[in-house]
Amino acid sequence: MTELITIDRHIQAQQRQYPQATGTFTKLLQDMALAAKLISKQTTRAGLVNILGATEDENVFGEVQQKLDVYADDTIWRLNDHTGVLAGVVSEEYDGIRTIPERYPVGNYVLIYDPLDGSSNIDVNTSIGTIFSIHRKFTKDRDAVEDDVLQEGKRLIAAGYVIYGSSTMFVYSSGIGVYGFTLDPSIGEFVLSHDNIKLPEKPKYYSANQGNEKYWPTGVQKYIRHLQGLDGDIEKPLQHRYIGSMVSDVHRNLLKGGVFLYPGDIREDRKFGKIRLLHEAQALGFIVDQAGGYASDGVGNILDIRPHSIEQTVPVFMGNRKEVELAEQFIRENDKSWLRNYAVYRSGVQIEAEVLRAVNGDSHSTDDTDSVGDAKTAKATPKKDQGAATKKT
Hints:
seven-stranded mixed sheet; 18 strands; single chain; alpha+beta; disordered C terminus
């Protein structure tokens, strides 16, 4: 008979590999698993209770908040605000860093999360998910500050995601492999179902929103033609599968093999990508890397990027290493102008210059620049309390 391993037992077993561990980090992962159970319960009942549909508010990225978005965000926060484990959280639904209330103790970790990725799919009963990552706080302040948050993905101590679909699955890595647990509703426990996940050697799928193809740089368009086998240069074309929920698409490709891409394009609000570096790309890139794959922004390893803003976005290519490195090659050979512009943004040089102009009251500063400047010092504020002036485009 197969050994029954719950997620709590698995996390504790991994903790024993570190004799100096205090159990604090273990508690954080266990609380995230509990949050997943509570959110899963609501997603399966969403059509029966008043939790479907949109609110009248928007998140910090200008996206209309769904009711279940708000519930998921509140659940994760309420499970973690008082435990003494965290020094702050960064949520896609809040602007800036949300600090721990003064009445509670603080810890040495920072939690970054997207409470409900793909939430626009909620009303049509398509898979959605939670994405999270954990950094160690290293500054001396009581509360987490931007330096604690704006760390490279390679410095993450753990990351994971939860899929809410035909079943609920919790996938995580603490840097020693990737493990998947499926929720057994009969006992209310996550049970190990996917041990030491590795990307299959041969890719099967590619996932991209081809409705945007006409906006993509030339190199990306040629790369897609290559994956489709339209140029006759591969033996077996990859099949196209796209759900519109990044966590779901990456999860499928993680298990079956393939590549997920969401490139930058020629539109002003998407020229350097749409995927959030902190909330989404770092966490999923960490998981893919631990499973033997590779995550790139079309230039290099996403986990090597030093973030310059909490709201920073990046182009994303992640999955089987060979296919992702080929995307980088197509971009190098065909999109030199885009690469020059993106290199400035990627390094943060342009952002810092714009912030300085805004601080100095330069009349040439743009509205977008002011938004970046505000983000450098803003305390976490729910979008519904900010008003339309802080909408990001």
